Structure formats: C-alpha cells, structure tokens
C-alpha cells in the first residue's frame, strides 16, 4: 500500500503529476462514452463516432506520469496499443491526437492511423500498436542518442504480456551489449488480454529478468506514483550518464476490460471495486491536500484546467472534417 509519510518529491513535480493524471483519467472517461456513440452494445457493432477497437488505460496513470515527469522533448517514448496515458504525459498535441482517433483530417496522421498508431515527432512519441513492437524502435532511438553523443533517453512502455515476446529479449540483449540509454517500463495490469500473468510468465516480476542481461531492474508495488517517480528518476539518471538500460515493472491496475465492450468473463467481477478503493489519483490528491502548499481551491483549479483542455480537444475533433475519400492514399505512397 501507499506510504503515509510525506515523499521527498518537489511540490512542483507532484502538482504536474496530479494534473496530468486528472487529464488522463478524464480523457479516458470521456473516450469510454464517446466510443460507444453509434455502436450497439454487443461486440461494438457499427462504425460510430470513433472507428476501430479501443483500449483504455483508466487506473494505469502512475506508470506514464512517474517517468515522463523526468523526460524532455528530446527523449523518445514508444507505447503499445493502450497508449493515451503515455501520449498525454509525454506532451503529445491533445487536439491532433483526438482528431486522429476520430479519423479526422486534422489528426496527427491525417486520420489514417487511428487510436493504435499515434505518432507525434514534435515530442518524439510513437505507438507501435502490435505487442512489443515499440521496443526495437526505442532501441534504435537509444542507439541514435549514443552515436550522436547526446544524453537523450529512450523509454519503451509495454504490457507484461509483451515481456514474453521475442522483441523484448532481443532488444534488451542488444541494449545491454551496446550499453544504451534505454528504459523498458513493464505495466503489469495482471492480464495479457484475458490470460492471467501467472499462467504465462515463469518469474514473479519481469524486473528480475534484468540480471540475465547484466542490467538494472526495479519493481514498483501498488501502483504508487511516488514510488514510480523515485525509481524512474534513478533509471533516467543512469541512462543519461552512460550507465546503460533499466527494466522497471510496475504493479498497476486496469479498471476496464482489455477493450471497450470486453465482457470480461475471465475476470472476477468483485475485483474492480476493490481496485478502485486504491485509486492512485485519489491517493495523490489526498497527499497534496494534506500538504501545507496546496489547498482545495488549488486542486479544483488544476482539475478544471485539465478537464477544459480535454473538452476542447474533443470539440476540436468533432468539428474537424473527415479526409476526402479520393485522397485517402495521399501521403501514403510516394509518386
């Protein structure tokens, strides 16, 4: 559980983390509703407002904010198919991201990529979509940093299921051999789609695999944003100072199903109410409220500001136009 003592984290950083977590949570809550517009409840039949499948990260906010608080625009982040919390924490343009998810011309990829293929070169963010696909890309970014003599860091976020894929092992082996500034963050939300971790993984936590590559590993319990902050701070410092890769696994909680509309027959339905009692957003809010620097009015102002940004992004996406069907392949193939 969360420690009750006051953490050794600056108030400025805690405020940033809280506001980003509010923004992520509100964004995902809104998307959960918008996604079902125009769809039938069973198997999400119908194109609706937002096309394609939808994977939301409600409850997994600490993994993203705890590390992105230490990053700059020059650092690279790659994300899996559940990418919104990473994108928001990294500073991806929220309006363009939402328009992309809606399939609109004003989107990051002009509506051609959608929810699972978000790219924003302005802040060095990309989403591979396929399980584990972002890790090799992050290795490439880390190698670029080293070859150019920069202190840039590359972070690959993955689910715990992807830690059993070949890309995970091959990438970490090369990153270790070449001593690259790579951090792999494993978000253990207990399920790889519908398969419990204990049924697919032989080790208790994937940070233990770090010793096989001769690199650093760390584990964060209880979805704790402050613990994630501290572990990430050390990992980023190591990477910037030429001390090589790190694997971080965080015990996090997926409040929703694998995808929107998931009947979750594999899940004990008493599980989610219990997890929500440990909501990291409420824990961090309580921590701030009990400090001497932040009052209730300050918290409400942060929350209002975050929600207003999200509301504006959704309105921008709704107001934007769909791509002209006749130019659908424009910018896809070169002449």
UniProtKB/TrEMBL annotation:
Region of interest (Disordered), ranges: 316-335
Dehydrogenase E1 component domain location: 52-326
Named cofactor requirement(s): thiamine diphosphate
UniProt-listed InterPro entries: DH_E1, PDH_E1_Alpha_Subunit, THDP-binding
Keyword DNA-binding: no
Protein origin, superkingdom: Bacteria
Gene3D superfamilies, sorted: 3.40.50.970
SUPFAM superfamilies: Thiamin diphosphate-binding fold (THDP-binding) (SSF52518)
Keywords, in A-Z order: Oxidoreductase, Thiamine pyrophosphate
Keyword Kinase annotated: no
Protein name (record): Thiamine pyrophosphate-dependent dehydrogenase E1 component subunit alpha
Provenance organism: Planococcus wigleyi
UniProt lineage: Bacteria, Bacillati, Bacillota, Bacilli, Bacillales
């Amino acid at each position: 559980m969360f420690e009750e003592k006051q953490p050794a984290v600056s108030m400025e950083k805690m405020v940033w983390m809280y506001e980003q977590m509010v923004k992520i949570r509100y964004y995902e809550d809104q998307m959960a509703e918008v996604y079902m517009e125009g769809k039938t409840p069973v198997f999400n039949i119908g194109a609706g407002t937002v096309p394609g499948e939808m994977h939301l990260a409600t409850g997994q906010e600490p993994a993203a904010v705890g590390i992105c608080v230490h990053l700059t625009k020059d650092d690279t982040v790659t994300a899996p198919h559940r990418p919104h919390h990473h994108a928001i924490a990294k500073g991806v343009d929220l309006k363009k991201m939402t328009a992309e998810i809606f399939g609109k011309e004003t989107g990051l990829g002009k509506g051609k990529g959608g929810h699972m293929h978000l790219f924003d070169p302005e802040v060095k963010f990309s989403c591979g979509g396929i399980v584990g696909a972002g890790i090799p890309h992050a290795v490439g970014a880390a190698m670029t940093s080293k070859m150019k003599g920069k202190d840039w860091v590359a972070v690959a976020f993955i689910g715990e299921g992807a830690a059993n894929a070949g890309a995970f092992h091959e990438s970490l082996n090369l990153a270790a051999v070449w001593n690259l500034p790579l951090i792999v963050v494993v978000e253990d939300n207990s399920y790889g789609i519908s398969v419990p971790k204990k049924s697919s993984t032989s080790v208790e936590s994937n940070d233990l695999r770090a010793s096989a590559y001769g690199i650093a590993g760390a584990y964060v319990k209880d979805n704790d944003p402050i613990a994630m902050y501290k572990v990430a701070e050390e990992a980023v410092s190591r990477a910037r100072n030429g001390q090589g890769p790190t694997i971080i696994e965080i015990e996090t909680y997926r409040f929703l199903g694998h995808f929107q509309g998931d009947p979750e027959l594999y899940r004990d339905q008493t599980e989610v109410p219990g997890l929500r009692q440990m909501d990291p957003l409420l824990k961090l809010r309580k921590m701030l409220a009990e400090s001497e620097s932040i009052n209730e009015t300050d918290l409400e102002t942060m929350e209002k500001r975050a929600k207003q940004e999200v509301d504006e992004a959704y309105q921008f996406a709704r107001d934007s136009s769909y791509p002209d069907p006749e130019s659908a392949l424009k910018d896809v193939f070169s002449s």
